[in-house]
Design brief:
heterodimer, A: about 110 residues, alpha+beta, Glutaredoxin, four-stranded mixed beta sheet, about 30% helix, globular, B: about 170 residues, 4 helices
Amino acid sequence: MMKIEFLYFEDCPSHEQALARLQQVMVEEGVDAPIAITKVETEEQVAALAFYGSPTIRIDGRDIDPPGPDMRPMLSCRIYQFPDGRFSPLPSTDMIRQALQNAAASSPTCTSR
Amino acid sequence: MNIDDPAISFTLPCTDGHMHSLSDWDDRPVLVVIFSCNHCPYARAWEGRIIDLQARFKPQGVKFAVINANDPVKYPEDSFEEMQKRAQAQGYNFPYLWDESQEVARAYGATRTPEAFVFDAERRLRYHGAVDDNFEDPNGVQHHYLRDAIAALLADQEPPVAETPPVGCSIKWK
């Protein structure tokens, strides 16, 4: 089963929409897994959880938009950039979908004898 | 700050290397003060639309002034040096001002980035709130709050909407 983590900062208003988007894409992709939701509130949590802004979504431990070398953990809203150059406080459905598909493709599969 | 309140004066350093005051633009028919910043995704999402609106209304004399009041110690991306870089890189067509003491943001009652305050020729607040109703998709906007408020004031009419909840990151207080 996939391990799905959703980390957010209450002060950043996009988290509810982001969680709904994640849940919707999971349904569309047939992913039946619990979402571990973590509310990040302190700088200590930011460091301990490697929180790169709200919302941060990890699937099997991998960030759906791996942070670049210039990014640092921060108690703030997170910037996502779409392929057309637009910025958004929300990951796109395509970004979430791709991450779910990548995780599914790389997960161990059962083999029949 | 409430609708119909007078604009609160300020003098702040700008990324262009000069100090700017509210009174610099006394002759403008409409003044738009927007609290924004570098690091916030909402500010970045609306940044291009703010540039476009300033360009669109420049011929009518409308002036935009954008103020960053975030604490640069906690958020280094919002330092004055980074503001200068962003203003140049993005081609800002308005003064980008630094409210280091955060006194201006507090006086205006600003809480979010971006958050717009639109003043008429008498410098009375006539619109306060969000730029529009869709931060994510410019083509999906249903209500162009800021654009319509400016256009209405230029036509000596009431803005169709006087106030909306600002949507964005919180201002990062010291």
